[in-house]
From TrEMBL:
This is S-acyltransferase. The lineage of its organism: Eukaryota, Viridiplantae, Streptophyta, Embryophyta, Tracheophyta. The chain crosses the membrane at residues 18-39, 45-69, 81-102, 108-126, 207-228, 248-278. GO terms for biological process: protein targeting to membrane. Belongs to the DHHC palmitoyltransferase family. The keyword Iron-sulfur does not apply. It catalyses: L-cysteinyl-[protein] + hexadecanoyl-CoA = S-hexadecanoyl-L-cysteinyl-[protein] + CoA. Pfam families: DHHC (PF01529). InterPro entries: Palmitoyltrfase_DHHC (IPR001594), PFA4/ZDH16/20/ERF2-like (IPR039859).
């Protein structure tokens, strides 16, 4: 993905493929917005809640259809380019259509937040999630995890090669080094591979990831509020805006609301992970990692593995450690 190539020659060699993937993502983004635009245009007589539900189903259908088309044509898309396209598209609609209907304070906040998001988005693309140089044999392959990242558990003899400075450092830290096949690298504190940001989320960029989640939620909520104010003023003053422009304002507002809904749920999950000092990968695939095992009824013939989190030190200490690591 974007931002993960470490060799300039490889970047130049892959530039035509990268350009194709970005183009495919932009076309798919246009198709997505056109599909959403049809909802308020043809179903505008229904309530906003019904249009929201219908738009969610349309997004699911468009996503499935897009995956089928890409597989049929044998082309790949770039998720970061898809996200970037929607950021620029929403900003363009705001500047051209929505902006004159909002207060100066909302205007400053929205434009400032979106500018910060673009900077943070680029930083995430090129950030180091916690790459660890491990001289490990790659013949042993672990089964794929649900996010497709294929993390591998490292034994203590192997992890000592990741942290050669001291045995103590290896024993404390290297247990949480896992392999991501999307990035083809070992990541310290591996949480998951995020296709939207084109990078792994690990020890060094987890806080940046959560900050971007908050930024996206606030920015999209501001846009939804601005679009709603525009539609209400348009009704009161009976402006001569075209039906397409009105539908565009409503469809982008609904799109932003849908994004906020799943991002809030995702953010709450990561707050939980930080508070209890556990990674998404560890929580989903805890049976792979012996340090999370507690043997129930060891005296019986059939013992049962139960979950325990050896890294949980209390919520306050976990939060303190999280922000200290980021600094």
């Amino acid at each position: 993905m974007l931002g993960l190539d470490t060799n300039d020659d490889n970047r130049r060699k892959n530039s035509p493929e990268l350009f194709l993937r970005c183009t495919v993502s932009s076309i798919f983004g246009i198709f997505t917005q056109l599909a959403l635009l049809s909802i308020p245009h043809f179903a505008g007589v229904f309530s906003l809640f019904f249009q929201l539900i219908l738009s969610g189903f349309v997004l699911m259908i468009v996503t499935i259809f897009g995956q089928f088309v890409r597989r049929f044509l044998g082309v790949r898309a770039s998720a970061p380019s898809f996200v970037f396209f929607h950021m620029i598209f929403i900003w363009s609609v705001y500047v051209i259509v929505i902006r004159h209907a909002v207060s100066p304070l909302i205007d400053i906040l929205f434009n400032g937040m979106l500018a910060c998001l673009l900077i943070g988005f680029y930083r995430m693309l090129v950030s180091d999630p916690g790459f660890v140089r491990c001289d490990l044999p790659m013949s042993v392959k672990a089964p794929a995890s649900e996010d497709g990242a294929h993390p591998e558990e490292l034994t203590m003899s192997e992890t000592s090669r990741c942290f050669p400075n001291s045995i103590e450092e290896a024993s404390l830290s290297a247990r949480r080094v896992h392999y991501c096949r999307s990035c083809k690298a070992h990541i310290l504190g591996f949480d998951h591979h995020c296709p939207a940001f084109g990078n792994c989320i690990g020890e060094k960029n987890h806080a940046l990831f959560m900050g971007l989640l908050v930024g996206f939620m606030v920015t999209e909520a501001l846009y939804a509020l601005s679009a709603y104010q525009w539609t209400e003023k348009n009704k009161i003053h009976k402006a001569n805006s075209s039906a397409i422009v009105q539908s565009l304002a409503i469809s982008t507002m609904i799109f932003s609301l849908i994004q906020v809904l799943w991002q809030v749920a995702f953010f709450i999950w990561h707050v939980y992970c930080v508070c209890f000092n556990i990674r998404t990968e560890e929580w989903i695939n805890w049976r792979r990692y012996p340090e999370f095992h507690v043997i129930a009824h060891p005296s019986q013939s059939s013992s049962e593995k139960r979950f325990r989190n050896p890294y949980h030190k209390g919520i306050f200490i976990n939060l303190k450690d999280f922000f200290r690591r980021y600094r």
